[in-house]
Amino acid sequence: MAEPSKKQRLSHHNNSSQTPSKAFYKTRDVDEAHPFVEGSILRITMKNFLTYDYSVVCPGPNLNMIVGANGTGKSSIVCAICLGLAGKTAVLGRGDKVGLYVKRGCHKGSIEIELYKTGGNIVINREIHVENNQSLWMLNGKHCNQKTVEEEVKALQIQVGNLCQFLPQEKVGEFAKMSKIELLEATEKSVGPPEMYEYHCELKNFRNKERELENVVKEKANFLEKAKQRNERYKHDVNRYYEKKRHLDVIELLEKKKPWVEYETTRKELEGVRREREETKRQLSALRQAQTPMLRKIQDIDDQLKPTEAQMKTKVDDIKQALRLKQMEEEDHQKRISNTRRAIDDLKAELAKVADQPDVAPQINAVNLELRQIQEEKAKIEGEKADLRREKDNLIAESRTLEKKLNDMNNMMNVKEEKLRGRHRDTYTALQWLRQNKSLFQGEVHEPIMLVINVKDNRFAKYVENHIAFQDLRAFVFQRKDDMEKFMTEVRDKMNLKVNSISAPEESCSKRPPSRNIESLRRFGFFSYLREMFDAPDDVMSYLCHQYKVHDVPVGNETTKAMIKTVIEEPYLKVLYTTEERYTVRRSIYSNKISTSNSAVHPSQYLSFTVDAEEKRMLEQNLKRCGVMLKETDDRLKALQKEAAMRDRRDNELLAEKKRLSELKGKKRQLEQKISTKQDSLKQMENSVIDLNKVEEETKKKIAAVNHQKVTIVSAFMAQMKLRAKLSMEKVHLAFETLGLMAEKSKLENDCRGSATELKAIDQKCSRLEQRKIQLTEQCKGMLKKAKAICKMQNDSSLPEDLRNAFSKLPNTLDEVDAMLNEERSRAECFTGLSENVVDEYNRRELEIKNLEKEFEEKTAALNAYKQNISEAKERWLNPLKNLVEQINNKFSEFFRSMQCAGEVDLHSENEEEYDKYGIRIRVKFHSSTQLHELTAHHQSGGERSVSTMLYLMALQELNRCPFRVVDEINQGMDPINERRVFDIVVRTACKETTSQYFFITPKLLQNLQYAEEMTVLCVHNGPEMLPPTEWNKNAFIRRRLQRKAQA
């Protein structure tokens, strides 16, 4: 410790919320021999900040060691440095709201920090308001915003967010967790030249752009090469295409000429057909004129003979047809009479049988009575069925409502399970396994606590969730320990899942009463204990009462927060909640004094989805009851339906019997009526019999009349014939004269017959020629139209001169044209897979290749320029960095050798060109039998990590670019030997004149440590017997201490 004779620079006093506390030290004045580094802290003033009412701390320029018991306020100074220099609350790892750092019971607090700067110190003041978590900033007495303060702090190389410069207590373990890349960046910012980190970022950006350019150049080169190769193949195809096109042009001309040749051939054929048709028509006309008189005379005679014969034949046929119809009608009439007589005989026989049977009226009356009774019973059954159906519909509606409510509750449980799966998949996997294998366990096994807990009001979920650790919220609860061991063997050892399990207390604690009745605490704003805010199975509740004392943790409101100073004085209260905060109360076993800590209550993430277990149980019971009632209703309906079916069957039987009896009763009367009707019908049919003899006589008379008429005609004809014979005798004399003419007539008739045959043949030929002419005419028109269409000519235009000249070089016959066309087509078909697109594609790719070559040259030039820039930037960054890492390694190795251990720091990179993969690797060895191992969060012990972290920070200390460093309680995990060695190194290194300011916070020190004159020791006290700052006398304290030591 500094000598008592040295000038006291500070009177540091502090009053906490319970007892006054004081921190004091003495150090050298700031003089030219021990100047402060630019940006060092000269003064820290705290007002209503955490444990301090008002306190001023004036650290020294070198090592400042802040010593004090836990809870006295050492870390409060670290918090003040961080928040006063515009640091984030996340850096401290404590409360996330700045208002939580104001002393309890105060509405606002302030921090003022004075920083050393040549030409005039900088004073930064931050006033924190609890109500809205806002801060007011002042810089050198003038109001400003936080951004201005951040820029001023940055200009002084102060980085409270850099673990290599500012390592608070809650972040000590995170240093070893930093990756090599993060450690390099933190080191560059902390001790490297200001431009080193900028060069590194610039290099990373250059490398990203270079990688992009390399990919682009590579892609361009590959694409260019492939394009050239493709175009070489296309070049051969283009030559083949042009050769094919020459053949296709000849084919096109041939195809254009072919229709013209076909047209000309068809036209010539048409002219020949026309001439032949005209000649045939002249012959046909001459023959027809010669035969016309004879044909007309023959036709006249036929016209006179045909009507008479036809008329006589028609009359005889009509008479015979009428006779046949009358005969058929009489046969049918006789059949109907016979059938009617047989039916009358059958009805009379049946009537004789019916007459012997008794009267059926009494039986019909009995059947009617039974039918009425059955109808009444059926009506009653239908009424009962309607009532049961209404009851069933009501039960179904109620069941659906209950199912919907249960589904809504189950959906809430599904949300909880999804959150569990998202946060801890191993626990979710184990949950699925448990649900499939519950039969393996003898006792009760409860799913993770977060799933079986049901908060009664989701407003209270945040208290339950903040009170129970997440590792327990995701834990399975077992009634029997052997079941828990079996479960862990399966899921942890065999399935390799990371899960938590809990065995419920053997003696249930779920009904354990609280220390005090809640009614006695209502005056402080407490309204419930934590246990009453949620439901859980008995085993789970028993564990929570045993482990977390949920039965003894009260929850209050804003009234509780306003009366918190009075509340914490109450006995038996160890943990309590206000609306937004949790308070933990500790009572000293020595002095019975109270110390408290508070933290913000975070919003609930898992338990806010509440399901009323009692309501769910009642819903399940009601749903089960509805199911039972539905089954009973269905059974009753089935019984009624069965009974109704029996009634229906009996009703049908009675109706059939009634029908039978009714038919039996009316059968006699019906038979008598039928017999009478049949007899009347028989009489009518017998009276209307047709007299065939008479009809035949009449027919014969009609035929005789016709024959008589015929005879008369024949007699007249015979008289005419006699007259004709007489006249013929007179003609005999003329017959001989006409013999010559008859011979000539016969000859003419023979000629006429021959000419008729010839006429028919000529007529047929003429028809054929006419059809052929029409056909050829249409063909000519079509061929001419087709030829003009192929040559793209108008209908009224003539063949163009160029086509006429081209056609003249081609064959003129159709066979020759077809032969040449087939030859050209065969040659053209040899060039397969070619089209005009080949040429277009070739030309397009030629242009594309030229553009690609130009782009490739531009990108290559840009890449070369980037490589040159990277090479220059790499030299600017890498060489100084290597020197910096070498200096750190020398100091780090030296520190480890002094502790009889080994340590090494090197610049690590798997690829020298990947600048974002560069990192600082720390390797340490604490035992001679082991090798150097990289410092990680898992390989070394907690003490070894603390030693390595401390020595690395000390290696950075002498490089001295940052104005100060802060390390809070890093020696807690060290063994005494390593702690002593590290302390010696810290003192030797931090007390050199070339180093910057250093804050070392520790709750305890070993005995007989070596101290330096340049050190400043601040002892923070806290207790009920503290003197006011104005009455404190350091010299008197030291004198009394020495006297007691001498007396001892």
From TrEMBL:
GO terms for biological process: double-strand break repair. It comes from the Eukaryota. One of its GO terms (molecular function) is ATP binding. SUPFAM superfamilies: P-loop containing nucleoside triphosphate hydrolases (SSF52540). Belongs to the SMC family. SMC5 subfamily. This is Structural maintenance of chromosomes protein 5. It is found in: Chromosome, Telomere; Nucleus.
